[in-house]
Structures are given as structure tokens and as C-alpha cells.
Amino acid sequence: MAGAGSAMSAERSSNLVSATWLRKHFDRPELLILDARVGPAETAGGKLTYLSGRPGFQGDGHIPGARFADLNDGFSDPDGAFLFTRPRAEAFARVVRALGIHANSLVVAYDSLSGAWAARVWWVLRGFGHTHVRVLDGGLKAWIEAGGKLEFGAGDVSARPGDFVPVERPDAYVGTTEVLDVVAGRRVAHLICALPRGDFTGQTSLDPRRGHIPGSYNMPFRDMLDASGRIDLARVRQHASRVGLDRADEILLYCGGGINAAGLALALSEAGYGAAKIYDGSLNEWKANPALKLETGPERTQ
Questions:
Q1: Does residue 211 contact residue 294 with C-beta atoms inside 8 Å?
Q2: What is the CATH code for 173-288?
Q3: Percentage of the residues of the chain whose pLDDT score is greater than 70
Q4: Read out DSSP for 83-116?
Q5: What are the pLDDT digits (tens) for 12-33?
Q6: 141 — phi, psi (to 5°)?
Q7: Range(s) within the chain of domains with CATH label 3.40.250.10
Q8: What is the CATH number of domain 6-145?
Q9: Strand pairing class (133-136; 173-174)
Q10: 278 Cβ partners below 8 Å, 6+ apart?
Q11: Is the entire prediction scored with pTM above 0.85?
Q12: Apex CA 63: angle with CA 224 and CA 226, to 5°?
């Protein structure tokens, strides 16, 4: 299998690829495309949840040759206490092997929503040491708009087993203890919530445990996108400046379950802010402990 370095010579400094780039490099032997879509659905109580995107992958069409990256299972821990938390290394090793991911595979992930789900695949792979991974900017919509064809059915299920061995990077994630250290002033870091502003302030939630972690700022991931759903670096930098973010700052990101946080990590990385870590349990974990406080209203002033 060819090395991935030459494939990215024009995009080396970016974690994104365009649909035009993907079409141009589509036949490279080291390229492996992952579809990271999920299926939004409402629960009986009217809350939004996310089911496996495999039915959409098969029935609504995917990029030809793509393989399905299951964010409800293989790319998260199905036995975890909280939804979408990262998988265990030994379980993830079986997943990437079955997907045919090699140590020198150039992985390109995409989804059919905001791009945050593809960013989560990007983050999980990077968190286990695979750095040859990019996100299709604009996702499936951008592929279709660029004239890309779709394939239907189960996709490529005959991949020869991969040889990539996941080794977890300790600097990719933080837990509740590290976040509490920031809240208490024992650790100097920017704590940033990637949820929409109404969720951050608590205005759009009926949950009695609503709002944000005390002392955090708000950079909604969707506000980092332009009208076509692509990351807008000018917007990212504007929001970063608004919250007083410096490129040398340590950044701890959270959201509801680590998905929008991954999207924001991608956007910040593209804008030159490379020291982000994700609070993997995010508000799902924080809210589960009644002793941990939440604040409502606007973010703190600098």
C-alpha cells in the first residue's frame, strides 16, 4: 500500500479536504473514505436522539467505496456510562481492523449533517494515534454539489483487514477532575462550550439541570460554518478573539456528548489553535452528578 504523505502534499497543513480534491484523488490506493452519518430521531418525550446512520448510508446513498463508521457503536463505547464516549483501545482495534484501516491509510471522513460527526471520527482516530485523517469540508452535500456520484447498498464489505494499532494519546481528552480544576482556578485553561447559545444560556431547555459549566465561554460549532456548511476561518477567528483566546492557551472543549466539541476542535485547529482537549463525557457526565453546579445566562466577561 502506498504512503499517504504524497497524497496530501497540497493539503499538508489542513485537516480538511474539498470535494474537488477528493474527486481528483479518488483512485489513490491509500485512500479510505468513512461515512460518519447518524440518524436524528425524536424520543417519545420529544427529545432529539441519534440512531445508527447505517440505514441512511445504505438507502439514501453514500460516496462510492465508502465504509460505514458507526458512531453509536464502534467509534464510541456501547457499554459506556454516557452516550458517544470514546471506545476502549482493544475494542477499537477490532473496529479499525475490520474497516481495513492501515497505519498509512489516508482516511477521509464525512457526514450528512453539520460535519461535527465526521469531526468526531477525525478526533477519535487522532486520539488513538492515526494522524493521516481528514474531514470532507461541507460533507455529503458538497460531494453531490461537486458532481460526485452516489452508491447504494452495504458498501465495501470485502476490505482486507487493516494493520493500524490504536494507542491512546493521553493529551486528547480530559475528565471531570481536570474540568473542576479549571472551574476552581487550580488550572489555567479556556473552558469552551460548543453548544448553541440557547442551550448554553439555558433559555431553550426545560431540563431543570440546564445551562453551562461555571466559568466557561460559548463558541457554538454551527456558528463556525458558512451558509454552505463549510468551516469559515474568519468566523472562527472572530469568535476566538471575542472570548479572548490566544493561540498558546490550553483549551478544554465540551458540549452535550463530545460531538460538537469535536467539530469545534477541528475548526480551531484549522484556524491555528492547536492545544485543544475534549471533555469526553461533556454535559452528559457533568449533569449526572447533582453536586456539580451549572450556570444559566450569558458567558462570563473577560
A1: yes
A2: 3.40.250.10
A3: 93
A4: TTPPPPHHHHHHHHHHHT--TT-EEEEE-SSSSH
A5: 479 999 999 999 999 999 999 9
A6: -60, -45
A7: 6-145, 173-288
A8: 3.40.250.10
A9: unpaired
A10: 123, 172, 173, 174, 252, 253, 254, 258, 261, 262, 265
A11: yes
A12: 15
- Most distant CA atoms of the chain, gap in Å: 54
Query: Which of these, 12, 11, 29, lies nearest to 20 by C-alpha position?
Result: 11
Backbone φ, ψ for residue 168 (5° rounding): -70, 130
221-259 pLDDT, tens digit per residue, is: 999 999 999 999 999 999 999 999 999 899 999 999 999
Q: Which helix (H) or strand (E) holds 201?
A: helix 197-201
38-42 and 48-52 as β-strands: parallel, antiparallel, unpaired? antiparallel
Q: How far apart are CA 94 and CA 236, in angstroms?
A: 36
Residue 262 CA to residue 124 CA, distance in Å, equals 9
For residue 74, give the nearest of 26, 135, 128, 112 by alpha carbon: 128
Residues designated catalytic:
255
* 14 contacts 22 by C-beta, under 8 angstroms: no
